[in-house]
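Write out the bound-state structure for zinc ion.
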Amino acid sequence: MTDAADAADTAATAATADTADTAGTADTGRGARAERERAAPAGAPAEELRAGAGLAGPWLDLVATARRTAAAGLVVGTSGNVSVRVGDLVLVTPSGVPYDRLGPGDTVAVRLDGTQVLGTLTPTSELPMHLAVYRTTGARAVVHTHAVHATAVSTLVTELPLVHYMTAALGGPVRVAPYETYGTDALAERMLEALDGRTGCLLQNHGAVTHGASLDQAYDRTAQLEWMCRLWLTAASVPGRTPSLLSPEEIGRVAEKLSGYGQRPEDTRG
Ligand SMILES: [Zn+2]
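---
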């Protein structure tokens, strides 16, 4: 293993160490990474980026985030994918390569039209979903997993029942995009419809997608969504009982409260 690969492993280890603390909470407090993302060269010329300038940090952050999804049990094997936007480019996990084998030299970058401009590995087959999000929203990062509770819920309902007020942190009731074959533009279109006004959705018989202003935020939303799906399944599985649900009006009130308070973690834990 090269020194550089060691460095990537170290970064990933540090990132996975706090997984237990952050999975299922609204914690967004990993400052160093967020700091580096803000320092990324938004709008930098593609020629400069093609040479790799400014991409090393975001790539390591992306690999660390992908490894967090595996360490937290949100993906099995190579079944999920993660991307981050840097200027006019999108860095994305490659297809079929376990996250623990990804090193600093494996950067995969594409333009918003899908043209690959950096890397020899093939981008994830779910690239159309990632690009659709970046083309239509201001998102800087996207996390897609086949997390078991989210996927289970996607087979049962067309919308996650309002079992908890943290639904508001995803923009409102979480919709389920109707099934389409993986990797297709049709799936990307159904996903965009389900994401309208939301930062997360479920994909029927497939998994979940969230986006955010940073890799940490997109990851936290995935963890939060998985937790809410698990919560509903747990409550709904008690024989002879039906979970109480919140009204859409209450979710709206919470959304206002969250935005008013800048979504600081202490405000979302009450
Ligand atoms: Zn998938």
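---
Confidence is low (pLDDT under 50) at residues 1-45.
The first strand starts at residue 81 and ends at 86.
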